[in-house]
Each structure stands twice: as structure tokens, then as C-alpha cells.
Amino acid sequence: MDINPNKVSRQGLPSQVAAFVRFEILRGTLKPGDRLPTEQEFSAQHGVSRAVIREAIAKLRHEGLVVSRQGIGAFVASPEAANSLTLEPNSLAVPEDYRHLYELRLMLETGAAELAAIQRTDEDLAEMARCIDNLAEVKDLHSAYVETDIAFHRAVAGATKNPFVSLFIAFVDVKLKESILMALRSLDFTRTQAIAHGEHQRIFEAIQARDPAAAAAAMRSHLTNSSRRLGL
Questions:
Q1: pLDDT at position 90, please?
Q2: pLDDT in tens, 124-137
Q3: Which residue of 47, 52, 64, 156 pairs with 5 in a disulfide if CB–CB is 3.0 to 4.6 A?
Q4: Considering the entire predicted model, what is its pTM?
Q5: How far is CA 206 from the centre of its chain?
């Protein structure tokens, strides 16, 4: 459990320490029931103050990932006990992190498209159609394009009538927004826009036809192709 102090900025240290411990818990290096180092041990190991450690542990305790036992110390709780879903900016530090997050997006949104084809209303279809029209109208404003693209996917999520689906898809899409924007700048925007517009149209048509299998397949194809275009 080492943080390299040369790689950790002095700004936002508690959040960065918390993100490090959170990552170790979620990937299983730290297991439920494991005792964390004391504040003094943690401070010495990672070259940060005890106040920083105290605040980082407080963050993790608030999230439900760590529990404190009076007079004994802090222990790892089960990840399933988490009270909130958090990804600090430095949690997405390398391309592999974004690929993993995109894989999660693929799983979530494929299922969302399938459910949307069953649950959608005429109002949902109107919102999706509006987003598709807006996608076609964007010229070279990449940020506006990404926002409109995400709006379409949120409309699909909303059509599921499951608020938790909408919540998790919105969370993942926001975290990927900046990486998508950066990747778009290296592509032929007009060509990419035309291809993506057709893919969104196929998703819409399958949902409109109330065809869950076709909707899932269209979403899977779109996100798989999108990940390749973006280098993810």
C-alpha cells in the first residue's frame, strides 16, 4: 500500500489518498475485514501528514467502505456496503481505465436499449428523435456534439423507466465525456458524425419498433464501433 509522494500533488491529497485506498479495496487487494495502517503508519509510509490520512479515512468511512472500531483502528468494509459511487479524476489515470469504463458502458447501455424497446412511450421517442436531429446539425463544435450524443443515450436510459439505470448511465457517460471529446479532435469529424448518426438512427428505429433484440444489437454495434473509432 504505497503512494509515491513524487507522483502525488499536494493539492487534494486527502481525495487522492482516499482514491488510492478505494481502488485497492475495489480490486480486492484490500479485503473486507483487513485492518488499515494507523494514521502514524500511513503518514510515514506515504509521506503525507496525519491530518491528510484522517480526512481520507473519513471520506472512505462516509462512503461505507471503511469502518472504525473504537480503540482498535479502521477496517475495510465490504464494497457492497458503499453509500455512494465515486470516481476521483485521478482514478482514470491510464487508457486501460477508460477501456474498462467503456466496457461497463457497453454492458449497461445494451441492456438499457433492450428495456427501452419494451417500456418506451411516444414522448421518449420524440426526445430521441430530437437528439438525433441535433446531432446532424452540429458542425465542428465537438463539445456540443458530445453533449448531444450523451443526451441521446440518456433519453434511451430514461425510456427504460428505471431511475437506477438512468443514474448509472449518466454517471459513466459523464466520466467518459472528456476522453471522447479529446479523441474526436483527432478524427475526421464530418465522416465520424455521419457514421454515428446512422448508428443512432438504427438504435432509434429498433426501439420505435419495440424490438428488444434489435435495439440491444444496434446499441452494442454502435458502442463497439465507437470504442474503436476513439481508440478505447
A1: 57
A2: 999 999 999 999 98
A3: 47
A4: 0.67
A5: 25
Helices (H), 120-186: 122-137, 142-159, 163-184
How many angstroms from the chain centroid is the CA of residue 105?
7
Q: Report how far apart, in Å, the C-alpha atoms of 127 and of each of 38, 62, 132 are.
A: 53, 37, 9
Q: Residue 67's beta-bridge partner residues?
A: 75
Task: Name the DSSP class of 161.
Answer: T
User: Percent of the chain at pLDDT above 90?
Assistant: 41
On the question of pLDDT at 95 being above 70, the answer is no
154 vs 167: CA distance, rounded Å? 9
Reading the block at residue 168, the C-alpha cell is: 448509472
How far, in Å, are 197, 205, 220 from residue 216 at the CA level? 17, 12, 6
Torsion on CA atoms 72, 78, 83, 87, rounded to nearest 10: 100
Per-residue 3-state assignment (H helix, E strand, C coil) for 20-87: HHHHHHHCCCCCCCCECCCHHHHHHHHCCCHHHHHHHHHHHHHHCCEEEECCCEEEECCHHHCCCCCC
Sign of CA dihedral 204, 112, 100, 59: positive
Q: Please tell me the distance from the alpha carbon of residue 221 to that of residue 160, in angstroms, as a whole number.
A: 19
Per the model's pLDDT, the better-predicted residue between 121 and 82 turns out to be 121
Domains and CATH numbers, the chain: 5-81 (1.10.10.10), 92-229 (1.20.120.530)
How far apart are the C-alpha atoms of 10 and 201, rounded to whole Å? Answer: 47
